[in-house]
Amino acid sequence: MLDVRCWRAVLDLPTSSIRHSASMLIIPAIDLKSGKVVRLTQGDPGRQTIYADDPVAVALRWQEAGAKRLHIVDLDGAFEGTPRQSGIIKRIAEAVDLPIQVGGGLRTLAAIDALLTDRVSFAILGTSAILDQRFLEEACTRYPGRIILAVDAKEGKVAVKGWMETTETSALELIETVATFPLAAIIYTDISKDGTQDGPNPEALRKVAEISRHPVIASGGISSLNDVRRVAAIRGMVGMLVGKALYAGALDFKEATEVAVQTARERHACETDHPLP
């Protein structure tokens, strides 16, 4: 069964399936490296743009703009295999009054325990969960509905260790494998699109949403209102991560949210009139 408890609180939904709801979140991404807010192009640390020196101020800015959730990644932790920006993340969690999801370097249960305080809602697992399925099962058992699986793909194959290594595991096969796990959601990132502002990969996103039994969050390349519409129109999507386009001014947060919600409502109305078998 789809675990909707945490999403119901954020999206203000009834007990009907989150995956087929008329709600859609634009989730600002805050990527941390050496204490600064940055964006990498295609996950390459050598192609970095610094956007702010004060991550807490950035988080408060998104809260004031109306964000219902924040996505925070400890890039140093992702590359080094252990959390490195815990102090800043704690300060952000204490400063804002909205759910945050955090990833980067969470490769032990102890690291997850330390992160999931009352102020941090969700832990995002990638490398550790993909390379060790038993670890993912243990994390989900300990924190049902609070673990998000990050599926980062290069040409359809899952990438790990800060996207520096590509496995032979198919992203779609992995998503099918975890169908019964009590995950909060799955984040699907097309690495070739991330940080490029070249637009998302709607075909891949549609395939992921079709096979996933969990809510799906899109990531990678979303940089225009048309991109927002294309993602929000996909059945099974509940949100999208947006970073570079917001910081560079290509997208206005409030306008993007309005378009996302309206598109999701139109999709939901169509599904209600013409439900799938």
Q: Could you characterize what this model shows?
A:
By secondary structure, the chain is of the alpha/beta class. It has a single domain (5-273), classed as TIM Barrel (Alpha-Beta Barrel), CATH 3.20.20. It has helices at residues 5-11, 55-65, 75-80, 86-95, 109-115, 127-131, 133-142, 171-177, 202-211, 225-232, 244-247, 253-273, and strands at 25-33, 36-41, 44-52, 70-74, 100-103, 122-125, 147-154, 157-160, 165-170, 185-190, 216-219, 237-242. An eight-stranded parallel barrel has the order 1-4-5-6-7-10-11-12, surrounded by seven helices. A hairpin with a 4-residue loop joins strand 8 and strand 9. Helix 2 (55-65) runs parallel beside helix 4 and helix 10 (225-232) packs parallel to helix 12 (253-273). It is globular, with a radius of gyration of 17 Å.
Any chance you could write out the topology, listing elements then pairs?
Elements: H1 5-11, E1 25-33, E2 36-41, E3 44-52, H2 55-65, E4 70-74, H3 75-80, H4 86-95, E5 100-103, H5 109-115, E6 122-125, H6 127-131, H7 133-142, E7 147-154, E8 157-160, E9 165-170, H8 171-177, E10 185-190, H9 202-211, E11 216-219, H10 225-232, E12 237-242, H11 244-247, H12 253-273
Descriptive terms for the model:
single chain; 277 residues; alpha/beta; TIM Barrel; eight-stranded parallel barrel; 38% helix; globular
